[in-house]
Amino acid sequence: MLRAFAGAAILGCALTACSPDYDWRTIMNSADGYTIDLPAKPLNDERDVDIGGARMKMKMQSAHAEGVVFAVGTVILPSDDPQLRQAVLDYLRTGLARNLGAAPEARTTQVPLAAGGMVPGLEMSVSGDAGEKREHRTIQVRLVARGKHVYQAAIIADKAPPQEQVDQFFQSFKLY
């Protein structure tokens, strides 16, 4: 019986060691108006960005798992202006593509609201070489604007993570 228990314990440890490094948790960000599942405890960052000559605050929550970064960036707009929202969406879309030397092509998607319903957004996948070392990266992103916020939910990796992890992240992203 002791042998069976020891064998089961060793097998359990081996299976645990082989299990994926994703520890999904739902993050409710009331201040910025969204909820999302992240695969690890999030890190928070904030900085000012210059978009079209205007300084705006961008907040970021990110989590790392198995060499992949899952992040939500929120640009805080100075006003609820549809033209400004569109300018910020365009800036984020073209900037991501430019950073990887890719075309800024995006397709429309629907982003759910926590209370029900949907809002239109953009979805894009880009691959290319980034940074000073020109390392290969893939970025999958959803961009959406609502009120005084523009959101960028992104997965950044050297190779795409398993589709079920991608689905978990994007399907959990809901706006208030």
From TrEMBL:
It comes from the Bacteria. This is DUF1795 domain-containing protein. The lineage of its organism: Bacteria, Pseudomonadati, Pseudomonadota, Betaproteobacteria, Burkholderiales.
